Protein backbone atom coordinates (compact mmCIF):
# COMPACT_ATOMS: atom_id res chain seq x y z
CA UNK A 1 0.00 0.00 0.00
CA UNK A 2 1.37 3.45 -0.96
CA UNK A 3 2.10 5.82 1.90
CA UNK A 4 -0.20 8.85 2.06
CA UNK A 5 1.01 12.42 1.92
CA UNK A 6 2.22 13.99 5.17
CA UNK A 7 -0.85 16.19 5.42
CA UNK A 8 -3.14 13.15 5.32
CA UNK A 9 -0.86 11.32 7.73
CA UNK A 10 -1.13 14.21 10.22
CA UNK A 11 -4.91 14.35 9.79
CA UNK A 12 -5.26 10.62 10.38
CA UNK A 13 -3.04 10.71 13.48
CA UNK A 14 -1.19 7.74 15.00
CA UNK A 15 -4.23 5.47 14.70
CA UNK A 16 -4.39 5.59 10.89
CA UNK A 17 -1.89 4.45 8.31
CA UNK A 18 0.98 5.27 10.70
CA UNK A 19 -0.11 2.42 13.00
CA UNK A 20 0.61 -0.14 10.26
CA UNK A 21 3.61 1.46 8.53
CA UNK A 22 6.88 1.72 10.43
CA UNK A 23 8.22 4.46 8.15
CA UNK A 24 5.14 6.67 8.48
CA UNK A 25 4.90 5.99 12.21
CA UNK A 26 8.49 7.20 12.63
CA UNK A 27 7.72 10.25 10.46
CA UNK A 28 4.69 11.16 12.54
CA UNK A 29 6.64 10.75 15.78
CA UNK A 30 9.47 12.86 14.37
CA UNK A 31 7.01 15.58 13.43
CA UNK A 32 5.60 15.65 16.97
CA UNK A 33 9.13 15.79 18.37
CA UNK A 34 10.01 18.56 15.94
CA UNK A 35 6.96 20.61 16.95
CA UNK A 36 7.71 20.21 20.62
CA UNK A 37 11.43 21.05 20.18
CA UNK A 38 10.77 24.15 18.09
CA UNK A 39 7.97 25.36 20.34
CA UNK A 40 10.36 25.03 23.27
CA UNK A 41 13.16 26.85 21.48
CA UNK A 42 11.20 29.64 19.84
CA UNK A 43 7.89 29.82 21.70
CA UNK A 44 9.13 32.17 24.41
CA UNK A 45 11.29 34.50 22.34
CA UNK A 46 10.59 38.12 23.18
CA UNK A 47 12.48 41.38 22.94
CA UNK A 48 15.13 41.89 25.63
CA UNK A 49 14.00 44.28 28.37
CA UNK A 50 16.86 46.63 27.45
CA UNK A 51 15.57 47.19 23.91
CA UNK A 52 13.09 49.99 24.61
CA UNK A 53 15.54 51.83 26.87
CA UNK A 54 18.32 51.52 24.28
CA UNK A 55 16.04 52.97 21.61
CA UNK A 56 15.11 55.91 23.85
CA UNK A 57 18.80 56.58 24.47
CA UNK A 58 19.54 56.53 20.76
CA UNK A 59 16.64 58.91 20.12
CA UNK A 60 17.92 61.27 22.80
CA UNK A 61 21.43 61.15 21.32
CA UNK A 62 19.99 61.77 17.88
CA UNK A 63 18.06 64.79 19.12
CA UNK A 64 21.12 66.41 20.74
CA UNK A 65 23.39 66.00 17.73
CA UNK A 66 20.73 67.13 15.30
CA UNK A 67 21.82 70.15 13.28
CA UNK A 68 20.30 73.45 14.37
CA UNK A 69 17.57 74.72 12.05
CA UNK A 70 19.01 76.60 9.04
CA UNK A 71 16.28 79.28 8.74
CA UNK A 72 17.74 81.65 11.37
CA UNK A 73 21.13 81.32 9.67
CA UNK A 74 19.65 82.22 6.29
CA UNK A 75 17.78 85.22 7.75
CA UNK A 76 20.98 86.31 9.47
CA UNK A 77 22.87 86.11 6.18
CA UNK A 78 20.18 88.10 4.33
CA UNK A 79 20.24 90.77 7.05
CA UNK A 80 23.99 91.23 6.91
CA UNK A 81 23.99 91.22 3.10
CA UNK A 82 21.31 93.94 3.05
CA UNK A 83 23.27 96.04 5.51
CA UNK A 84 26.46 95.75 3.44
CA UNK A 85 24.55 96.62 0.25
CA UNK A 86 23.09 99.69 1.95
CA UNK A 87 26.54 100.83 3.07
CA UNK A 88 27.89 100.33 -0.46
CA UNK A 89 25.03 102.32 -2.02
CA UNK A 90 25.44 105.15 0.46
CA UNK A 91 29.19 105.23 -0.07
CA UNK A 92 28.74 105.39 -3.83
CA UNK A 93 26.28 108.25 -3.43
CA UNK A 94 27.89 110.35 -0.73
CA UNK A 95 31.66 109.82 -1.16
CA UNK A 96 31.88 112.00 -4.32
CA UNK A 97 29.95 114.75 -2.50
CA UNK A 98 32.26 114.46 0.50
CA UNK A 99 35.29 114.62 -1.80
CA UNK A 100 33.95 117.77 -3.47
CA UNK A 101 33.36 119.40 -0.10
CA UNK A 102 36.89 118.59 1.06
CA UNK A 103 38.60 119.79 -2.11
CA UNK A 104 36.45 122.98 -1.97
CA UNK B 1 3.74 61.78 18.40
CA UNK B 2 5.68 60.68 21.48
CA UNK B 3 2.65 58.82 22.80
CA UNK B 4 2.05 57.13 19.47
CA UNK B 5 5.68 56.04 19.31
CA UNK B 6 5.58 54.68 22.86
CA UNK B 7 2.50 52.70 21.93
CA UNK B 8 4.29 51.28 18.87
CA UNK B 9 7.29 50.27 20.99
CA UNK B 10 5.04 48.55 23.52
CA UNK B 11 2.96 46.78 20.92
CA UNK B 12 5.56 45.87 18.30
CA UNK B 13 8.95 45.48 19.98
CA UNK B 14 8.55 41.72 20.48
CA UNK B 15 7.36 41.16 16.93
CA UNK B 16 10.11 43.33 15.45
CA UNK B 17 12.70 41.47 17.52
CA UNK B 18 11.32 38.07 16.47
CA UNK B 19 11.30 39.11 12.84
CA UNK B 20 14.93 40.17 13.21
CA UNK B 21 15.86 36.87 14.91
CA UNK B 22 14.19 34.94 12.10
CA UNK B 23 16.05 36.88 9.41
CA UNK B 24 19.42 37.29 11.10
CA UNK B 25 19.43 34.06 13.13
CA UNK B 26 21.31 35.71 15.96
CA UNK B 27 19.97 37.47 19.04
CA UNK B 28 22.66 40.12 19.41
CA UNK B 29 22.42 41.14 15.77
CA UNK B 30 18.63 41.01 16.03
CA UNK B 31 18.60 43.38 19.00
CA UNK B 32 20.71 45.91 17.13
CA UNK B 33 18.57 45.61 14.02
CA UNK B 34 15.42 46.01 16.12
CA UNK B 35 16.88 49.19 17.62
CA UNK B 36 17.67 50.50 14.13
CA UNK B 37 14.17 49.67 12.99
CA UNK B 38 12.55 51.47 15.93
CA UNK B 39 14.77 54.50 15.38
CA UNK B 40 13.75 54.58 11.71
CA UNK B 41 10.11 54.27 12.77
CA UNK B 42 10.53 57.20 15.17
CA UNK B 43 12.09 59.31 12.40
CA UNK B 44 9.45 58.33 9.85
CA UNK B 45 6.39 58.54 12.07
CA UNK B 46 5.66 62.25 11.42
CA UNK B 47 5.57 61.49 7.69
CA UNK B 48 3.44 58.34 7.99
CA UNK B 49 0.20 59.14 6.15
CA UNK B 50 -1.49 55.78 6.51
CA UNK B 51 -1.27 54.79 2.82
CA UNK B 52 -0.58 51.27 4.07
CA UNK B 53 -1.58 49.82 7.43
CA UNK B 54 0.63 50.73 10.38
CA UNK B 55 1.76 47.12 10.82
CA UNK B 56 2.69 46.76 7.13
CA UNK B 57 4.71 49.98 7.35
CA UNK B 58 6.44 48.86 10.55
CA UNK B 59 7.29 45.39 9.23
CA UNK B 60 8.64 46.86 5.98
CA UNK B 61 10.95 49.13 7.97
CA UNK B 62 11.98 46.23 10.21
CA UNK B 63 12.76 43.97 7.25
CA UNK B 64 14.79 46.73 5.61
CA UNK B 65 16.72 47.30 8.84
CA UNK B 66 17.51 43.57 8.92
CA UNK B 67 18.65 43.59 5.29
CA UNK B 68 20.90 46.56 6.07
CA UNK B 69 22.32 44.61 9.02
CA UNK B 70 22.94 41.61 6.77
CA UNK B 71 24.68 43.78 4.20
CA UNK B 72 26.73 45.48 6.94
CA UNK B 73 27.81 42.07 8.24
CA UNK B 74 29.60 41.44 4.96
CA UNK B 75 29.02 39.43 1.83
CA UNK B 76 26.41 36.78 2.36
CA UNK B 77 27.65 33.23 2.37
CA UNK B 78 24.21 31.87 1.73
CA UNK B 79 21.36 32.56 -0.61
CA UNK B 80 17.69 32.32 0.23
CA UNK B 81 17.67 28.87 -1.35
CA UNK B 82 20.82 27.46 0.20
CA UNK B 83 21.04 25.86 3.61
CA UNK B 84 22.32 28.07 6.36
CA UNK B 85 23.83 25.14 8.26
CA UNK B 86 27.36 26.08 7.45
CA UNK B 87 26.90 29.65 8.65
CA UNK B 88 25.25 28.40 11.83
CA UNK B 89 28.01 25.86 12.41
CA UNK B 90 30.65 28.54 11.86
CA UNK B 91 28.96 30.80 14.38
CA UNK B 92 28.75 28.06 16.99
CA UNK B 93 32.36 27.08 16.56
CA UNK B 94 33.50 30.67 16.98
CA UNK B 95 34.35 32.52 20.17
CA UNK B 96 30.98 34.26 20.33
CA UNK B 97 29.03 33.34 23.47
CA UNK B 98 26.20 30.92 22.97
CA UNK B 99 22.74 32.38 23.20
CA UNK B 100 19.68 30.59 24.52
CA UNK B 101 18.73 29.91 20.91
CA UNK B 102 21.89 27.91 20.32
CA UNK B 103 20.18 24.57 20.75
CA UNK B 104 19.71 21.41 18.74
CA UNK B 105 16.63 23.08 17.32
CA UNK B 106 18.72 25.86 15.88
CA UNK B 107 21.19 23.38 14.43
CA UNK B 108 18.26 21.55 12.90
CA UNK B 109 16.75 24.74 11.52
CA UNK B 110 20.20 25.70 10.23
CA UNK B 111 20.06 22.91 7.68
CA UNK B 112 17.16 24.64 5.93
CA UNK B 113 17.39 27.22 3.16
CA UNK B 114 17.09 30.74 4.60
CA UNK B 115 13.61 31.42 3.22
CA UNK B 116 12.26 28.28 4.91
CA UNK B 117 14.18 28.99 8.11
CA UNK B 118 12.64 32.45 8.44
CA UNK B 119 9.12 31.09 8.01
CA UNK B 120 9.64 28.17 10.40
CA UNK B 121 11.20 30.20 13.22
CA UNK B 122 8.61 32.97 12.96
CA UNK B 123 5.79 30.42 12.84
CA UNK B 124 6.80 29.00 16.21
CA UNK B 125 7.60 32.42 17.68
CA UNK B 126 4.26 33.85 16.58
CA UNK B 127 2.09 31.15 18.12
CA UNK B 128 1.65 29.36 14.81
CA UNK B 129 -0.24 32.16 13.11
CA UNK B 130 0.06 31.91 9.33
CA UNK B 131 -1.46 35.38 8.83
CA UNK B 132 0.94 37.04 11.24
CA UNK B 133 3.98 35.35 9.68
CA UNK B 134 2.81 36.33 6.18
CA UNK B 135 2.29 39.92 7.25
CA UNK B 136 5.65 40.14 9.00
CA UNK B 137 7.62 38.68 6.10
CA UNK B 138 5.55 40.43 3.42
CA UNK B 139 4.63 37.12 1.80
CA UNK B 140 1.28 35.71 0.66
CA UNK B 141 -0.30 33.36 3.21
CA UNK B 142 -0.25 30.54 0.62
CA UNK B 143 3.51 30.89 0.21
CA UNK B 144 3.99 30.77 3.98
CA UNK B 145 1.93 27.56 4.17
CA UNK B 146 3.89 25.99 1.31
CA UNK B 147 7.29 26.90 2.77
CA UNK B 148 6.24 25.69 6.19
CA UNK B 149 4.90 22.40 4.90
CA UNK B 150 8.06 21.68 2.90
CA UNK B 151 10.33 22.70 5.77
CA UNK B 152 8.52 20.65 8.41
CA UNK B 153 8.37 17.66 6.08
CA UNK B 154 12.08 17.88 5.32
CA UNK B 155 12.99 18.28 9.01
CA UNK B 156 10.69 15.47 10.16
CA UNK B 157 12.09 13.13 7.50
CA UNK B 158 15.62 13.99 8.59
CA UNK B 159 14.71 13.36 12.24
CA UNK B 160 13.01 10.08 11.36
CA UNK B 161 16.07 8.93 9.37
CA UNK B 162 18.26 9.89 12.30
CA UNK B 163 16.05 7.90 14.62
CA UNK B 164 16.18 4.84 12.35
CA UNK B 165 19.99 5.16 12.12
CA UNK B 166 20.29 5.37 15.89
CA UNK B 167 17.84 2.48 16.33
CA UNK B 168 19.75 0.34 13.84
CA UNK B 169 23.17 1.07 15.32
Structure explained in plain terms:
The complex is a heterodimer of chains A (104) and B (169). Chain A is mostly helical. Chain A has two domains: 1-65, no CATH class; 70-104. Helices cover 78% and strands 0% of the residues of chain A. Chain A is built from five helices and no strands. Chain A is rod-shaped and about 130 Å long. Chain A starts with 5 loop residues before the first helix and ends with a helix. The mean pLDDT of chain A is 87. In chain B, 37% of the residues are buried. Chain B has helices at residues 2-24, 27-44, 54-72, 85-93, 104-109, 114-125, 130-137, 141-168. Chain B is built from eight helices and no strands. Chain B is elongated and about 60 Å long. Chain B is mostly helical. Chains A and B meet through helix 3 and helix 4 of A and helix 1, helix 2, helix 5, helix 6 and helix 8 of B.
Amino acid sequence: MACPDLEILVREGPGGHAAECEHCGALLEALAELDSTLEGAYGAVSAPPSLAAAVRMRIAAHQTVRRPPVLPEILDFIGWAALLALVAVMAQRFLPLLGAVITG
Amino acid sequence: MEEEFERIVREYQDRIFRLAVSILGDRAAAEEAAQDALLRIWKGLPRFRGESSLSTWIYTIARNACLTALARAGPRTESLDEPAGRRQADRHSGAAPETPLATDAEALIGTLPAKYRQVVTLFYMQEKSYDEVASMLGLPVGTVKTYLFRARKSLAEELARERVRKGGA
